[in-house]
Amino acid sequence: MRTADFAYDLPEELIAQHARPRGSSRLLVLRRGTGEVALDRVSSLPALLGPGDLLLLNDVKVIPARLRARRSGGGEAELLLVRPLGGSDWEVMARPAKRLHQGAALALAVGAAIPRERLADGTWRVEFSPPLDEAALAAVGEVPLPPYIRREGGPSAADRERYQTVYARTGRAVAAPTAGLHFTPELLAALADRGVETARLTLQVGPGTFKPVQADDPSEHRLDPEDYEVSAPTAAALNRALGAGRRVVCVGTTSCRALEHALAAGRGRVLSGAGSADLFIRPGYAFRGTGALLTNFHLPRSTLLMLVAALAGRERTLAAYELAVRERFAFYSFGDAMLVA
Length: 341
Hints:
By secondary structure, the chain is α/β, with parallel strands linked by helices. Helices cover 22% and strands 28% of the residues.
C-alpha cells in the first residue's frame, strides 16, 4: 500500500468556501457490506439510523488559535497555537518560522509573544504576556480556518459561529471536528426521538491531524498525539452498547480515533479518564468499536481519507469520492457529508 493509492482528482471549485445552513448539507451513504451508494441529505439521519444506535460526538470547543503578530523589524508573522505547556507558555507553529528569534518579542493586538525555545519538530515554545486566558484569546486570536478556506481580510464573526459545533462544551481545539458542524439542536432531538442514544467525549483536535503524508509508504508517517477525555457516563454508555452488540456511530474521525484508542488501552473496554491518541488508522486496521462513521470528504493522500478507507475499503471509498465529484458535492471542512454504515 502506497500513499499514492489514496489520490483522487478534485476540481478546485468543489472546495467549499462557505458552509450550508446547519442540517441542510447533502449526504452520500455508503453501505459497507454491499458497496451500495445512495445520495441523500443530513436531515435524513433519523431515518438512516435506528433505535439502539449510539451516536458518539466530540464536544471539543475550537479556540481562536490563529494569532497575527508583528516582528520588531516590522515584518508580519502568524502564530498557530498547538497546545499549552504550562504557565504562560504554549507550543506554537509559526510562519515564517525562520524569522523568529529566541527572546525577540512579537507584538500582538494586545500584549506580546516571546519565542523562548525552538522545539525538536520545528515548533516553538512561546511565552505570552499577558497569559492567554479566554478573554485574552478573544482579544488577539481569530478562527483557525484551514488554509483552503480563503477569507480576504480574515475570518468573519459568522465564521467564528459556524466553525463550532452546536454542542461544543470544553477544550482547546485548533481545528473543528467538522462532521459535527452539520448538526442542529432539532436534528439531535429528532435522533433522540428515533431512539438513538447520544454520548460525548472530548478530543483536543490539533494541527497534526492534518499534516500531509510525505512518505511514499504510509507506515512511515507518525501522527502527533492528541489528548482526549472520556467521562464515566460516556464510558458506561459505550461499554453497554458494545456489550449488547449495538452499533456505535462515530461522528467524525476524531471520535472514531478516540474510541478505538480507548478500547485498545482498556483491552476491549472503554475506561473513563484521560488518554492521548496517536493511532494511525489505515487499511488493514481491525476496528474494535466503530460500527458506522459520519464524516466529511477529506484531502487526497491524507490520514483522514485512509481512516475512511480502512472502514469502507479503499476501492469503495475512492469510487464513492469519484461519484461525489461527479454529483458536485462540496468538499472539506465546510462541505457535505458521507455516512459509512
